[in-house]
Amino acid sequence: STTLQSQVFFNTRLGKGEEILDYSYSYRVDGATVRSATVNYYEGNRRASNASADDALVQSDTHRTTAIGAVAVSNRRSSTFFDIRLGKDEEIADYSYNYRNNGNTVRSVSLNFYEGDLRAHAASTEDALIRTESYNTSSVGEAKVSNRRSATFFNIRFGKGEEIADYFFNYASNGTSVKNTAYSFYGAGQVRAVSAAPDDRLARQDTYRLDHEADSSTLIKSKSYYTGEAGSEILDMSQTFNLLEGVKETTRYYYGDTYLPASSAGDAPLRKTSTFRDITATLRSETFFGGDKDEEKARSAFNYNNIGDRVKSTTLFNYNLSTGVLESSVVYRGLVDWDLSTAATTASTLSAAAGQITVSFTAQQGVFYQVRYRPTLTDPWVNASPVTEGDGGTRTFTEAMRGGTGFYQVIKLAVKRSETIYHGIYEGEELADYTLNYRGDGLTVKNTTYLLYGAGSVPASSADVDDALSRQDTYRGNHVTDASTKLQSQVFFDTRLGKGDEILDYVYNYRANGTDVRSVTVNWYEGGNRASAASAEDALSRTDTHKTTSIGAVAVSNRRSSTFFNTRFGKDEEITDYSFNYKADGQTVRNTTLYYYEQPAGPLVNAQNARSDAALGRQETYRKNKISDQAAKLSSLTYFQTHFGKGEEIADYTFNYRADGFTVRNTAYSLYGVSAARAVNSSDLEAKRSSTTPSPTARGRSRKPPVTITEIASCRLQTQALWTLL
User: Fold this and answer.
1) 115, 225, 236, 580: least surrounded by Cβ within 10 Å?
2) What is the pTM of this model?
3) Strands 106-114 and 129-135, how do they pair?
4) Which is nearest to 29 in space by CA: 225, 282, 315, 231?
């Protein structure tokens, strides 16, 4: 019942004892499907069929294909080159090339180092491999420290051929600074390489920030757990950590169409990942995959609300069917089927009485709908209701009958939030080109953001896949279809650390004419450093906004505001603490705003005590500098609805105070959408409308929630009479 793992094929034309290894197959876990083919080349760059019995192996190429007859440059994935000075059967692997998807362009170079820190040309055949280093370059002659990207270190106590990978360094773009360190653990006991056997399976990998070998106080960043046989391990679970809270997120991996856990997956491909806050506390996201094993691609992803019971947004990924290249990703509001299906389900009730038409449906949570009408079957549909979101309950749509014969239909909608277009010739080498961000209707483009790469800030179509993101330009409206729309902002990045480690430096905000800079916002990182001096791990500590027209003209005298962040959780986990608005001199604080956050239970807390994913519940604005003067008077209080979670809080109402800081001058309520709903009842797609009530005690009435229809149906209507469901 055991399955085939590999096959090695020999050329036998020279007879027994003179066989020459020609090629080999590596099989998938099912033992039937070829995963890859490796082809050998001998001195003179000859295949086994033309080599002599004394020719040494000079090169082996690995191809992603299922048969030797299908081997081609286009499916070549790597090549290993050997030092042959010691002759046949004494070859020593020297370096290898990893190719881009065209099989011809070298993506990276890996060098081997042996005992005594020797390269292959100086090593003996008995020297064990102690280290491999990967370089971001296109030839072995160009490999140098400045383009070194990673190194893997081996335990060699079992000698040559039995080396066990121990730990791994990932380097910054300078090739010397260690960004993180990863350790491998083996077997049922999850032991380090020094205690593992050569045939023990990989069980876990722990990744630490910075060089944990040199400084054991650096903190854990992530853990990944594996299951399966040695050489065929698959991911079971992974966890990420922040600086203070311990486990930040846990991701579980599921395989096959029935979403089997890794322990039962066998050779099934990855089909779903589920990410939870902490260990399994609250569902945050789910990603669904398609494709064969080892070639899986994300098809769709669900992002959940802050309590994990409703899909807040859906992302669909679209690929070129012939090349496999990612062409676009579209983010929709709420829950959307992968195939954008609007297949009909059974309607609950439809009635007509007293000159009105009424449709009632059982809501589907997180899905958006709209009621449409047309007088005849040949007329175009017109919208009879606003776009509304289901909440799991029953909703009713009622309107005055339009007279005569007509048709009503309730449709399930895919309401776009954003759409990103990618450029790439080869699968896995796509670069984001531009993003369209939509208004609440999902149809009107609010703005267009172009992503620019490399030292020349060129578009994706002209950039190399390894170029770092250097700038983002945002235009009002749909700049792709209307080049006359105006520039809204530009974001500039420091790219000295390379791709993946870009650091936001400053932002230009433009006036309506799209040419004059209105203000410049500058980022400051831990240690009081600008982006040019910050490390990849430094958290954002402050942003300053200046009323000036260029980064070179930034000065204290034109500073207008500063926002300060609590950085105790580290990079990407910063929490807004307080902000200053300055008078014209750029130094005297005009007012201070303090920010307070939700916690699982109890009152709101400040940034120093908030969780990293806490939603903003209240902001307090004081006259003058509240940080240095606790007697500063309260100017206003704004309260937020947080049912959509962090980053999507909705302002509900504001108290504005008189000069004494105690007496409420007035109360302002924010009302949203065509139904003018309070924040607690609004959906995140509705446009904002606000009104101010000049009574210090006014509370106002909570408006009814927006109409929500949650099934699909069509009906034909004659005046005050229901005819039939279509």
Assistant:
1) 115
2) 0.82
3) antiparallel
4) 231
